[in-house]
Each structure stands twice: as structure tokens, then as C-alpha cells.
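Throughout our pipeline, every protein is held as a single compact record rather than as scattered files. The remainder of this section carries one protein's record, kept here as part of the documentation.

===
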Amino acid sequence: MTTGTYVVGLGNTRMGFRLGVPTEMLFLEAIKAALDDAGLKKTDIDGFSGRWTAPGGTSLHPGSADWSTLLGQPLSWIGDTYPQGPQGLMDAAAAVAAGSCNVAVVVSGQGQLAGGLAEYTRPGNEFVAPYGAFTAANFALVAQRYLHELGLAEARRVREDVARIAATIRTCGSVNPEAVLTGKGEITPEAVLASRPIASPLRLFDVCLANEGATAIIVAGKAVAKGCPSPVEILGVGCEWQRQQYVMAPRLEDNWQVGAAGARKAFGMAGLRPEDADVRSFYDANAFEIARQFEVLGYCSFGEGAAFAVENGIGPGDRMPTNTDGGLLSYSHTGFGGPHTRASYAIRQVRGTAGTGQVAGVETAVSCGAGSGAQYHGTIIFGRPS
């Protein structure tokens, strides 16, 4: 069984630290690219999910309905629950399957970042703003406890393996001409461990970027997909929410396994096992999350994720290729759009258009969004049309 829905269009803007373009203009650029990719017209869009970022709209975010004005046409469906990544694509696929709309655009990203700490990493929540918490610190709380639970000797080995994971992904990004950190050269595990501390145990090279860019993904049913040049089927999707992100501090006991139930649902819907996926596009907010996702998706048991990744290899020619574009660590992390870039890369792998990180013979790809520090997680599986 599958969802009966397809990704029919995909558009990515350029990715960079200072693009000098407002977020809404990046969104429009990505949407146009996705429409061109699908061979569709703007007037075909009747469903939309994306944060309103320009003046003159609602203060009740996300505000997808305001986009009807820029599109110049009414919408029959909007998705304001979580307009990006597996969660946003799940909502769009459900809307298409239910007949609420025929062609749904899900778009996310960011532009014109202010200097310093990215604004979305420190929301004005009761136990965040007064105490100086920020996104990396939330993920670090869980990772630090994880190492503690493993014991000192094992923790040292895991920490070294996590550095190897980060080095592999960042090195993949260095040879990807589309990556924000392209051309930076090979990153070694030693360089990861020597980089400056951010929030123990996370160091600079363990942690994702904060840059600008946008991604648009168009979802439609089989009738529309038949007329599009490169449809990719949505085989399965499953999400798990434990609470809203960055409200209460996460705990290992509650959050290390967040997403496991959703992953089982996604693979069950697709009729696949985790090891059947040819490639992985994981949400690497930090390198520890790669280890966590190998455990949560069922590849291995608690405490084994980092060793599993290192022993099997996660590079393009290895047994478990993962984030071979450079991931959020090196390719791009566009804030709320981070999960969307990961979904985009999984789609490109199935299409065979993933550039320097393309894995040979990809039939299916799995992508994930968010993780332990955010206290929710989504899994989506893409495949060649049946």
C-alpha cells in the first residue's frame, strides 16, 4: 500500500549565507522553479502550505492563506499545521488524496537573516528566552545524557565515531558545487573534535549551518502525475509529536526515541524495511542526530547508531549512503526549511539528479525531519512510480 500521491515538481533556489533577497521572493523563485519542473502553470495550484513572511499579512502564523493574494487566485486547501518537511508533505498528500485539492505546493526557507544567532533558535517561550536556551543547547542536553548513559569508555568511542560521521558529511558537502560550504576541502574527525565548543558535547563542526534559500515541492495525485516529466511516488509517511518545540527542555528518557512509532508507520505503509531504502537524507541538526536516527528507524539498538554508521559507511559508495550532499552540516540549513531541503535531496536521489552525491541505482529514499531536541520527528519515504 502507498499513499497514492506523488511529488511532481521540485524547485530549489541557490543556497548561501547572504543572498540579499527577501524570504517571500525566494519562495516565489522556488515555486516558479517547481512549476517549471512539473510542466504546470500557476493557475494549476489550488492548495498551498507555506509561512507568510511579508508585510501586510496575518500575525497568526503560519498564514498560508495570505499567499492566495500573491498567487492571484483563491485556494481550496491550505496547510498551516507545520508547512515543511515530512509533516507538511503528509498534510498535502492527505489533502490531495481526500480530494480537497488537486495540486498542492509546500514551500519553506528563509532570507535576509540578521547577524548573530538565528532568531528562530531562541523563541520567546517561558523557559527559553529568560534562561538563554537555544536550539543547539536543547539538542546538546539529550546528546550529553546519551553519552552519560553509555559509560565513560563507551562514550569516548561514540564521541569519536560521531566526529567521523560529521567529517564524512561535511567532506561530501565540500565537493558539492551547490553546497554553501563547497570548496572547503576535506574535513577530518580530528578537526571536528578540535573545533570550538558550542554546547557540550557539541562542537562547531558537529552543528548545522544557518543560511538562506528556499525549497518548493509540489504534490499531486496520479492523474496529474501522469502528465509530469519526473514524478516521484510518496510511498509512506509517519510523524510523532511529543510537544511543541523549544517550550520545555528535552530529556533523553522522553525524547531519544521520538519518531520511532512514526518511522514504523512510514515503512509499514510503504511495505518496506529500513534496510530496503537505498539512500538516507537524515535531519542532521547535529551529527549525534545521525546516530540517533539509525537507532530510531530500526537499523540498530540504543547506543549502536554511531558505530553502525562508521562500520557500514555513509559515503556515496558505502553500504549506508547518508546525506551525501553535505546535509544540514554543509549543504544548507534554511531554518524552518531545513526538513524541506532534506526531503528535496531524497527526491533528487530517486530521480537520479543528485549531482556529486548521487548514489547508483536508487529505487527508494527515506528522509527525516526534526529530532530529539525539537521533541518531534517525521519520516517520509519516496520511490520510483509503480
About this structure: The mean pLDDT is 94. The first strand starts at residue 5 and ends at 12. Residues 5-116+211-225 form a domain with the Peroxisomal Thiolase; Chain A, domain 1 fold (CATH 3.40.47.10).
